[in-house]
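Lab meeting, item 3. Inverse folding demo.
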């Protein structure tokens, strides 16, 4: 029920995790952080710009976004917030597909990113030309793509989904008698398939962060903290998902941490989320789910190297220079918008709150 295995092209210039980490570790630490933050705040005002940040970027950027009237959230909420905001310039602290989504929903606005080389393994592992050929080979299937894809891939899709709305969308399509072609994350797709019973053909992509979580080591860590709660993003392997107390998107995992009476949480998603969890629940203990163990590759070690490419220094630079503007072929914007709007319309019909349809 799956296509050929797709090798993520980490050897391409500008796309390797090694290069991403090299950029991060070589970035000079600012000795004058308060002055730098003050300068960025003024630049945001001068440029009529708003900063939107993902939960996975550095805590400095998350705090700065909220302090300046921006938002810290999931990628679609970031784009929707930008659409409602009066700012003429959107600065996206995240990875490239998030900047593209913001541009698709806000084509009249300028969208900047601290580093355009901040990619996503799911996006990279689903090249538009190969994906189009895969779709053409299965014309009888409804094409459903995850938000972590390029504008060109979205333009080829019938539906775009986030992890929070994937289950109800696929359930709806299954009840309508449709067979589904799913891309790019095989773990999320497998979870949705198992929960809905839908006929799904899965593209074989994976997130370099979530793919590394280890179930045996997670069992061992749980044993050290009796009564703990395990929070897992469904991009994780099936064996890890089966150990979860809560399975959900970043927003859903944060909400679960706030509402639970548990005092210790093991979190299987990018460790950037721990800043928000610890801020909202300072009296609780949050631990990273283990990535080490038998068969470990640990190219990410619970943190996306591309998310880590966002920092205060390159944020100030992009605001000062106007560099790193997201550009999307005008012919792609309309077809890429259609699957997004279809999802948003469906969310309204089932009365899913806007802040409840975030993806990663």
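The presenter then showed the designed sequence:
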């Amino acid at each position: 029920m799956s296509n050929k295995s797709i090798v993520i092209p980490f050897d391409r210039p500008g796309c390797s995790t090694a290069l991403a980490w090299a950029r991060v570790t070589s970035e000079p630490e600012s000795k004058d952080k308060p002055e730098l933050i003050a300068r960025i705040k003024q630049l945001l005002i001068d440029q009529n710009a708003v900063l939107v940040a993902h939960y996975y970027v550095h805590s400095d950027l998350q705090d700065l976004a909220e302090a300046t009237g921006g938002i810290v959230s999931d990628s679609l909420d970031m784009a929707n917030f930008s659409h409602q905001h009066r700012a003429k310039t959107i600065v996206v602290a995240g990875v490239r597909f998030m900047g593209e989504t913001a541009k698709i929903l806000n084509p009249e606005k300028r969208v900047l990113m601290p580093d355009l080389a901040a990619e996503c393994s799911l996006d990279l592992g689903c090249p538009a030309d190969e994906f189009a050929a895969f779709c053409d080979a299965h014309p009888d299937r409804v094409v459903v793509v995850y938000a972590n894809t390029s504008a060109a891939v979205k333009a080829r899709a019938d539906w775009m989904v986030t992890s929070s709305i994937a289950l109800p969308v696929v359930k709806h399509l299954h009840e309508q008698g449709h067979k589904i072609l799913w891309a790019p994350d095989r773990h999320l797709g497998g979870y949705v398939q198992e929960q809905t019973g839908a006929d799904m053909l899965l593209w074989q992509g994976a997130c370099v962060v979530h793919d590394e979580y280890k179930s045996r080591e997670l069992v061992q860590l749980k044993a050290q903290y009796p009564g703990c709660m395990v929070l897992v993003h469904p991009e994780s392997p099936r064996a890890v998902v089966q150990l979860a107390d809560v399975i959900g998107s970043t927003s859903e995992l944060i909400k679960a941490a706030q509402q639970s009476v548990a005092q210790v949480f093991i979190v299987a998603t990018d460790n950037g989320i721990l800043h928000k969890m610890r801020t909202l629940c300072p009296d609780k203990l949050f631990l990273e789910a283990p990535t080490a163990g038998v068969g470990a590759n640990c190219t990410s070690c619970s943190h996306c190297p591309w998310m880590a490419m966002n920092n205060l220094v390159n944020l100030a630079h992009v605001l000062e220079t106007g560099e790193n503007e997201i550009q999307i072929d005008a012919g792609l914007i309309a077809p890429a918008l259609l699957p997004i709007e279809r999802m948003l319309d469906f969310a309204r019909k089932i009365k899913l709150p806007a802040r409840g349809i975030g993806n990663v």
